[in-house]
Amino acid sequence: MGIVNATPDSFSGDGLTDPNHLAAHAERLWLSGADLLDIGGESTRPGHRPVDAATELERVLPAIRAIRLRCPLAPISIDTYKPGVARAACAAGADAINSVWGAPNELLDVAAEFAVPIVAMHNQVGTQYAGDVIDGVIAFLLDCVERALARGIARERIWLDPGIGFGKTADQNIAVLQNVSRIAALGYPTLIGWSRKSTIGKLTGEDAHLRLFGTTAANVLAVAGGVDVVRVHDVAAASQALRVADATLRDWRPAGWVG
Predict the structure, then answer these.
(1) Which residue in the list 82, 157, 196, 231 is annotated as catalytic?
(2) Band (236; pLDDT cuts 50, 70, 90)
(3) Among 92, 44, 88, 87, which residue's Cα sits nearest to residue 67?
(4) Where are the domains positioned within the chain?
(5) What fold characterizes domain 2-249?
(6) CA end-to-end span of the chain
(7) I need a surface site. Which of 60, 64, 175, 214 has the fewest CB within 10 A?
(8) How far is it, in rounded angstroms, from Cα 107 to Cα 118?
(9) Which residue in the list 68, 197, 202, 250 is annotated as catalytic?
């Protein structure tokens, strides 16, 4: 999943606001090996300032239309937790919903209405858990699953994301990576977003734009734990690393392979 930030305040400094520039960036990600493009109009960086739905729509709708023209075959997900934004984005051509605040009922209603996948990400206010952090994440995600299934959303359209960097300390983020196989074992498509996150910076001492190698390590470890999709800024590097990981872990080979 290639990240397309339609915001002026992205934590990694890659946000764009002009639809044509966003479409050109999205096309580069697509040609570099992205399987889908994730467009967001509100930064979720620590300390971010939320924007209203109207502002978010002003950012993402022109971007979706411009990207659809340049990349007609690319699946597009809308990175939002607002039902109104999700509905308008799906009507404009988005193929999936990616929510950083789990699966609110109204957002699930939109996913059911348009018959699109929804990514339910674990998130909470604060980093305190009543017990084990992984148990807490799984309970949250299973609640999302139960409510999605009740609305007739197919199992393969319910994607689960443990939420790296959201409602978690650096040690809790590492614990999630160590135990990500427990989330994959729930039997639903899984997604994880380690790209350039602050925990990598704490481990490596590098600023956000210099965290490629740490991101790559986290992505390969996540795939080894059973994760299906990684959300990344650096698509070309991730694509190379995960081709090797998939060949080793899942016996994958590219088309036309001669061994």
Answers:
(1) 231
(2) very high
(3) 92
(4) 2-249
(5) TIM Barrel (3.20.20)
(6) 28
(7) 175
(8) 9
(9) 197
